[in-house]
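Per reviewer request, we include the raw input and output of the structure prediction for the construct analysed in the revised manuscript.
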Amino acid sequence: MKIVLIAPTYLPAIRANTIQVMKMAQAIDSLGYNLTVLVPQVEVERREFSSDDLTHLYGLSSEFKIEWLSTNPRLRSYDFGLKSIKRSRELGAELIYTRLPQSAVFASKLGIPTIYEIHDLPKGRMGPQILRWFLKGDGARALVVITAALRNAVEEKFGKLFKDGERHSIPLIVEPDGVDLARYQKIPSPQQARNSLSKSLPLQPSSFLVGYTGHLYPGRGSELILAIADRLPNVHFLLVGGETADVNRVRQMIDDLGLKNITLTGFIPNAEIAQYQAACDILLMPYQRKVAASSGGDIAKFLSPMKLFEYMACGRPIISSDLPVLKEILNHENAILLPPDDLAAWVSAIKDLCTNTEKGAKLAAQAQRDVQKYSWETRAQNIISAVHNASEFHSP
């Protein structure tokens, strides 16, 4: 089957949505489908990127076809939406997969079989209307959401549109984000990983290291980590990732507090991220009650962070905020779950795991078992299979 995956934003970039899109593209390609990825590109910024550049940035293990289509940012992706559908037709696409609402609605209205994935409830004046148009279009084949919480919200607001007796039933598929399990098969010990990173980071192999990987946007918990570090001066903290402005903001906070037990790395390519996670004895996921996305807004109700599945695969004990949506995956058997505003509880949990290594090992082992069903390949196959079952598509 010829599948065209239409990216929602420019590539390459360091935003999480671009990583997710490239991981899904790799998974679809690995399943044997004839895949082409279409990407918007501002004409004045167009330049060539080697396959090695993209492989390293996104941690890819295979190459697939990517085409960049020029777009005008002032047109808010509507021109790219039309261009991407025109190009999809030229490529003979039998199925379109996209997170871009403009492409999803144009394809659906034109009757091209389309899977549309969303990570939040549509907002603004046009967002909800575009989803309604997509669901009513003859090309709509499935709507993919990343959490049960988002499914429930979508059903409450748009549920009656999923069953149109005059045309077809549209599956509403819940598929959380995933992980490259192969990259975590031979994970080094914390001491080995710290040794391998010693040339670029001032880490002592024998020190106890508590880590966080990901962006440093508001609501991701950097303030909480700094407060914990202030209480635990003999524990070292490693914050991996973040855009330059956010890294500088957090670095200034560290300097203002006079903290000496925190290391900031700034952005790290996805190909290297597992090594940094492996260097840690504990991994933190301190999401707050309100969580900002790269585009703003609050995604705390519906998020499915990729770091969650990477942490689980890494085999390190996880301490996480007890947000309801995170408990769709985490529980007290595979993680320590704490209120995001209870500093004393976080400090106590880290102290406990510093000495109670058996407890940490048990939590980590259960998380590794639980994460096996969350590979990107499994996710892609589950989604495409659901569409097969609801239509007349056939596997390659």
